[in-house]
Amino acid sequence: MKEGEYINNPFRLGKMNAEALKRNNILIRKSELILYIFSIISILFFILLFGSQSFAQQTQQVLPKVYVFNGNGNWSNASNWIGSIKPPGLLPKGDSILVQTAKGDSCILDVAQYLAEGAVLKVVDGSNFVLKNGMVQFVPSANFFTDKRDGKKYPIKRYGTQTWMTINLNYNQAGSKVYDNDPNNAPIYGRLYTWAQAKSAVPVGWHLPSLAEWNTLISFLGGAGPMKDTMYWQSPNTAATNSSGFSARPGGLFAQPDFEDIGNFGLWWTSNEHSEVGSFNWAYYFQAGYNTQGFYSDYLYKDTYALSVRCVKD
């Protein structure tokens, strides 16, 4: 073969170009295939990575919680629980409470513990479980409200045309207080709010009840006796039966700079302001006492006092 033969021979030149083109096409197809395979691998990697994280998050969300009492003494004392983690006042569906005391020790239920449908309270054989000013109550799943802001659950009940929460509000609104700054009081009595804090703390879909709404409720239920909890009040807790399930509790108040009257009085804000000397510095509230049969209304400085809150549905 002479030098330049393929250049001067059109047939050979065309054959050379066709073979080169074929080789180039094969290389291009191989590159595309490699790129395609790499893309598939990348997609699978990200699916596995983020899918596993999502699965882990979902698993973490649905895993039931188990609260274990293995100490000696009051239910309300966090140190009696493993990890110092007490159960919430309303135990959600799927969660469990296990009471397992040592010989000679006792678990003393000194608070109200609500159990949603599907929640479990189990006392291990041989454990000593004592009720002392406490109670266990099962709440149908349709009869509680979950506050999406913090996950707290509130038993609710319909009275005539109104739907009320049957425990005091316990949302940690900025500036609100727990009686004596003791966190163990919050699940029992809720938090204490100034009037402005109360207006802000109420969850969406609910509101601070008016004087008229309180009066309608009290008239419907027949006064304070059927509304007052049979626990937590000082003796004589006059006329208290709690037959309505409203469970009014004596959370006291905060009157700067002091906490006052827990166990003696329950005071709840209304949405109504009161004008005196041309200034709306006051707001109405309702009060019940340990030695009274009725509720009565009055007004206080709305920025100075912090009271309990009950919510009624919009």
Relevant terms:
3-stranded parallel sheet; single chain; 5 helices; 314 residues; alpha/beta; 25% helix
Can you offer a commentary on this structure?
- This protein is α/β, with parallel strands linked by helices and 314 residues long.
- It is built from five helices and 20 strands.
- The radius of gyration is 34 Å and the shape is globular.
- It starts with a helix and ends with a strand.
Short note summarizing the structure:
This protein has 314 residues and is an alpha/beta fold.
**Proportion of beta-strand residues:** 25-35%
Distance between the termini: 99 Å
Structural class: alpha/beta
So what's the oligomer here? Answer: single chain
Low-confidence stretches: 1-16, 54-60
Strand order of the largest sheet: 1-4-7
- Tally the helices: 5
Helix content: 25-40%
Q: What series of H and E elements makes up the topology? A: HHEEEEEEEEEEEEHHEHEEEEEEE
Rounded to the nearest angstrom, the radius of gyration is 34 Å
Average pLDDT metric: 84
Largest sheet: 3 strands, parallel
Task: Specify the overall morphology.
Answer: globular
The total of beta strands comes to 20
Layout of secondary structure:
Elements: H1 5-8, H2 10-62, E1 66-69, E2 73-74, E3 90-91, E4 96-99, E5 107-109, E6 112-116, E7 120-123, E8 129-131, E9 135-139, E10 144-146, E11 153-159, E12 162-165, H3 186-189, H4 195-201, E13 206-207, H5 211-221, E14 253-255, E15 258-260, E16 265-276, E17 279-289, E18 296-301, E19 305-306, E20 312-313
Parallel strand pairs: 1-4, 2-5, 3-6, 4-7, 5-8, 6-9
Antiparallel strand pairs: 10-11, 11-12, 13-20, 14-15, 14-19, 16-17, 17-18
